């Protein structure tokens, strides 16, 4: 039985497994999407983030929903996009890693967890 997950990670340009993870969710250059099937990386692709504008923190929700993301691993995120992702059925997780590849390794090693209220940002600095 196939268990494909599409994990999105906010990334610095150009994205990919070697790219640095972006600590600022809303202002990342791209999202790297990693398809994992039964724990093994199957494919890696990127989608551009939209320019962050007032009220634009929900645009990435639409981008990632259209791209087929099933989960998002962040360093931090605000309440509005967190709610938007929940409504879109995309699980928001938090975990370690400086590069996209390190984040995926942490995901595979069960070192990520659902984001808690204490992890949320108050806004103003672009997560």
From TrEMBL:
Gene3D superfamilies in the cross-refs: Dinitrogenase iron-molybdenum cofactor biosynthesis domain (3.30.420.130)
InterPro entries found in the cross-reference section: Di-Nase_FeMo-co_biosynth, DiNase_FeMo-co_biosyn_sf
Membrane-traversing stretches: none
The name this protein goes by in its record: Dinitrogenase iron-molybdenum cofactor biosynthesis protein
Residue ranges occupied by any Dinitrogenase iron-molybdenum cofactor biosynthesis domain in the UniProt entry: 21-108
